[in-house]
Design brief:
mainly alpha, 54% helix
Length: 191
């Protein structure tokens, strides 16, 4: 016989299966589904700082990992909001390295729109596709407000990727990242 309280207990039972060693989320299809997972955040920050994106080589993978583990950033926009106290929490970062990071962050605001788009880590958007998207839409803002049907006209984008890109721009964390980047001097509109 099955009692209602058993159904409630079953509902609250913790899901089983392999878990992410960093955030303890249960893997879905072999991957961590948690977008706030420090590993995923560190990957995004590392890509943002790469020479192909915002060009902040002084902020490497180790520093990005610390920023993510300390929950100081969830997206690239938050890098530009960090105060001295936040930077002081990082281990192994010298005064000279921090000066380099901050100087390079200032220079990153002049990055080409396609480099910024690549750094934003949209699903399936590599450097070449980022360039084609900027050519087609003239700016990140143009891409942001585009209709999914228009996206499908771009060579190299299938229907699923079109949906994922459109969804990326509708996500609240990504919207916040774009807003913070604009507030910190990035031009996401027409050049």
């Amino acid at each position: 016989m099955f009692f209602p309280f058993q159904a409630v207990a079953e509902f609250f039972k913790e899901p089983s299966g392999p878990k992410c060693p960093e955030c303890y989320s249960v893997f879905i299809d072999g991957a961590c589904p948690n977008l706030d997972c420090p590993v995923k955040v560190a990957e995004w920050i590392t890509r943002w700082c790469s020479p192909e994106a915002a060009k902040i080589p002084a902020l490497g993978q180790a520093e990005a990992g610390q920023l993510a583990k300390l929950r100081l950033v969830l997206h690239p926009g938050e890098l530009y909001e960090l105060g001295q106290g936040d930077w002081d929490r990082l281990e192994g970062v010298s005064v000279d390295q921090l000066a380099d990071i901050q100087g390079q962050m200032g220079g990153s605001k002049l990055a080409e729109p396609s480099a910024v788009l690549y750094g934003l880590k949209l699903p399936g958007v590599d450097e070449r596709l980022a360039k084609r998207l900027i050519e087609a839409f003239s700016s990140i803002d143009g891409l942001r407000v585009s209709k999914p049907e228009r996206l499908q006209q771009i060579e190299g984008i299938d229907e699923q990727q079109c949906v994922e890109i459109h969804r990326w721009f509708r996500d609240s964390v990504n919207k916040k990242a774009l807003t913070m980047l604009e507030q910190n001097g990035f031009n996401l509109g027409e050049q």
